[in-house]
Design a protein that fits this description.
- By secondary structure, the protein is an alpha/beta fold.
- Helix content is 33%, strand content 11%.
- β8 and β9 form a beta hairpin.
- The two termini are 46 Å apart.
- The relative contact order is 0.12.
């Protein structure tokens, strides 16, 4: 059940040396066979179907390429209807009547209200319906908790995998996996679709941040660590290694967004769901290798990739799913399809589901009518008809259901009931009357753990440890914290990502494609974290500058109202540019108002000003004759510092495929202008992948710190900036010079910063 020695990845995997964990004992297997023998065909097929629980409600369905992929979806009436509380009747009509074995809530799915007790009530209702069904089997409730319980408001959101890869700390990755599992269990979830074991080989791929690294060995070690954390969290929980296999190796131009009803009206993409063209040696060395430690660790489930290998859909490849994963590697757990992936594998659903199930997929994950007209009930009927025709052998159905039962036993949902035989009674008769297994709603986690201080503290440590210091001219970092709340030097904070939880968290954060702004959850932005250390720091908004917003509480529980302020230099510049700003805003259909606070040292406060897509500082740079204060000549200690926090907008999957790895031009212009005016510029990158650093920018900045997608705890970034924590992170992806190095193979020939690069600092005080 474990890997006893290092395997040469360029050789065929020797299953006598390496085998997946057996997962269950002989007694467990006997129970599984007894349960299987009692199930009817309909009951078995119900165990093989995993619909989105939003389809259990009587609610409007989402239109093609509509609500699920547009930002406006987040507050839409459609979403509110789909997330209305589930009733017992709805659960009985779906879970109970069809003996479903598992359910999921896709990205953005949540009960109303979106809080742990509502999640628990919904999960309990579905579990009761499952136990009332003729099969009586408990339910697997699934969620994409890829960096915390990301569908739950106020949950702790940890750094995405790309940042965790830079920590090089298996113990901390394991801890984060356990904490994510506990906050998920507090919502009644018992199956997490993580870790992602993909090796991302092209930085233009929209799922790069879901990968730990471009290095297969590092991916493997950290995937196994996360599996340990999830499956040993102390509550029933299954992990899922994904996406089998080579999803990170697709060729540019082969990707096409297609999710069986979502993507028909959406453009094609460059890499996601594309085709990987590689020989057997490369497949095993690069893409299979990261799964081996997770399989040895006993990961209970594996999800198949939307992508293709050498022109064949992975979901339809018996050689990959049954031949390699199940037979050669000895995997005995569940293989689950990706969301609506079956529809990609045939001209008709009937043909497609036969291909996929016969290839070795055990559970069909489906939107089930949330998009389009193909409901999960009809899919069940199609599968039953295929079995009746002999297109799907009964033995294949039994193998799939056996695996589902094995996972339920292994993660603690199913256990044999204690038989009670009266003294002198007939043991055989008593056993026949006794249920095979205990039928009770599975235990759930403690709702009080969600977003608790201990979890946020662990996330903060992880954020600090994941930050990578690329450049540190003159040892400018860590910044001096000053005394008595006063900065040691004038400090300016700006950039489009400075005050944005949405950009810190990235995709898979409350919504599939992530969120913008700060109102969607609880956390601490990088700007707030900096001002907690240096209250005198001035913030120049990097989004619709100057909008005042009260958005709940910080991670520390106090109410906050944000006001965007500018230094006197920007106030003077704005006075010169006010007339032009007013004309520009009116031409764009927006209002522009500015007022100066009274006093001898006025600060500019913008109440409603620039368009949503305009960066406040960069707009002033472009439209005002700025007169920046020149750097004093007294030395570096008193040189004014500008922290420019920039990076990517949130995205997920194919929506993040890009042609260029480009920083926001407005922030680049701002950083260059600040440096030319004598400010020491610290460039802080909030990003899901390495982005190009233009030479005019790189030659001017004093420091470059990469925070990746840190999640809700921006304090961890400030800890590194001010030396409360050392900078120890090391690149898990090499950093390209130019676009011709977007592919990993091209970066072997001298990247800008090599794999493993990371300057070190010491903690101060």
């Amino acid at each position: 059940g474990c890997l006893h020695r290092v395997i040469d990845p360029r050789t065929r995997i020797n299953t006598h040396i390496y085998m997946a964990s057996p997962l269950t004992s002989a007694d467990d297997e006997a129970l599984i066979e007894e349960i299987l023998a009692r199930l009817t065909l309909r009951e078995k097929l119900g165990q093989m179907m995993q619909p989105d629980w939003r389809t259990f409600r009587s609610a409007p369905k989402l239109s093609e390429a509509g609500a699920a992929v547009l930002p406006a979806w987040a507050g839409s009436a459609v979403k509110r209807a789909l997330n209305a509380p589930l009733t017992d009747e709805q659960c009985d009509r779906s879970v109970g009547r069809h003996c479903l074995g598992s359910v999921l809530g896709g990205g953005g799915a949540c009960p109303t209200p979106n809080e742990p007790l509502a999640w628990q009530a919904q999960a309990a209702a579905m579990q009761r319906a499952a136990l009332r069904a003729s099969s009586g089997l408990p339910l697997l409730v699934c969620n994409d908790s890829v960096h915390g319980q990301a569908n739950l408001r106020d949950a702790t959101l940890f750094p995405h995998h790309i940042g965790q890869g830079c920590m090089r700390d298996e113990g901390l990755v394991e801890e984060l996996g356990a904490l994510a599992a506990r906050e998920s269990a507090a919502c009644g979830i018992n199956w997490i679709f993580s870790p992602c074991a993909a090796v991302a080989l092209d930085l233009r791929w929209g799922r790069t941040y879901e990968s730990f690294s471009e290095d297969p060995a590092l991916c493997g070690r950290l995937s196994a660590a996360e599996v340990r954390g999830i499956q040993r969290c102390g509550l029933p929980m299954a992990a899922c290694a994904k996406h089998w296999v080579a999803d990170g190796g697709t060729a540019l131009g082969t990707g096409k967004f297609d999710m069986g009803g979502i993507g028909k009206a959406v453009k094609s993409f460059g890499l996601d769901q594309g085709n990987a063209d590689c020989d057997d040696a490369e497949l095993r060395a690069t893409h299979v290798a990261p799964y081996l430690p997770a399989l040895a660790e006993g990961v209970l489930t594996v999800m198949v990739s939307y992508s293709s290998l050498n022109g064949v859909k992975c979901h339809a490849s018996r050689a990959l799913v049954t031949g390699l994963l199940k037979e050669e590697l000895g995997f005995r757990g569940v293989v689950v399809s990706d969301y609506n992936a079956v529809q990609q594998c045939g001209g008709s659903y009937s043909a497609a589901v036969c291909k996929v199930v016969n290839a070795g997929v055990d559970i069909v994950m489906t939107a089930g009518g949330l998009f389009g007209d193909l409901t999960w009930r009809r899919q069940l009927e199609e599968l039953e008809a295929a079995v009746g025709r002999g297109d799907v052998p009964a033995e294949r159905v039994d193998d799939a259901v056996r695996r589902v039962l094995r996972v339920k036993v292994a993660c603690g949902l199913l256990r044999r009931a204690a038989a009670s035989t009266p003294a002198g009674g007939d043991a055989a008769a008593a056993a026949s009357r006794c249920p095979l297994f205990d039928a009770a709603v599975p235990p759930m986690g403690d709702a009080a753990c969600v977003g608790c201080e201990a979890h946020r503290a662990a996330a903060r440590r992880a954020v600090a440890k994941s930050c990578v210091l690329l450049v540190n001219e003159g040892g400018i970092l860590p910044l001096p914290a000053g005394e008595g709340g006063r900065p040691a030097a004038e400090l300016l904070v700006t950039g489009i990502a400075a005050d944005s939880l949405g950009r810190q968290c990235g995709g898979w954060s409350l919504e599939w494609q992530g969120c913008e702004g700060n109102a969607f959850t609880t956390g601490t932005t990088i700007a707030d974290a900096i001002r907690a250390v240096q209250p005198g720091a001035r913030l120049v908004s990097g989004r619709a500058a100057g909008r005042q917003a009260t958005d709940g509480r910080t991670a520390h529980g106090h109410a906050r109202t944000r006001t965007r302020t500018h230094t006197q230099a920007y106030a003077r510049a704005h006075a010169h540019a006010h007339a032009r700003a007013h004309a520009h805003a009116r031409a764009r259909g927006h209002s522009h108002a500015a007022t100066c606070a009274p006093g001898p040292a006025p600060r500019l406060r913008l109440t409603t000003c620039l368009p949503q897509d305009v960066d406040g500082l960069a707009w002033l740079l472009a439209h005002a004759p700025l007169s920046f204060p020149q750097a004093p000549s007294a030395g570096a200690a008193s040189r004014p510092v500008a922290v420019v926090v920039t990076g990517e907008a949130p995205y997920a999957e194919g929506f993040g495929d890009v042609e260029e790895l480009r920083l926001p031009p407005a922030d680049v212009r701002a950083a260059v202008a600040l440096a030319d005016a004598g400010w020491a510029v610290v460039l802080l990158l909030v990003t899901g992948r390495p982005l190009l650093l233009p030479p005019p920018l790189l030659s001017r900045v004093a420091a470059v710190l990469v925070a990746w997608l840190p999640g809700t705890e921006g304090d961890g970034v400030a800890d590194v900036l001010f030396g409360r924590a050392p900078a120890t992170g090391r690149l898990s992806f090499s950093w390209p010079h130019a676009m011709d190095q977007a592919a990993a193979a091209a970066r072997l020939k001298g990247p800008l910063f090599p794999f493993g690069h990371g300057l070190q600092t010491r903690a101060v005080g």
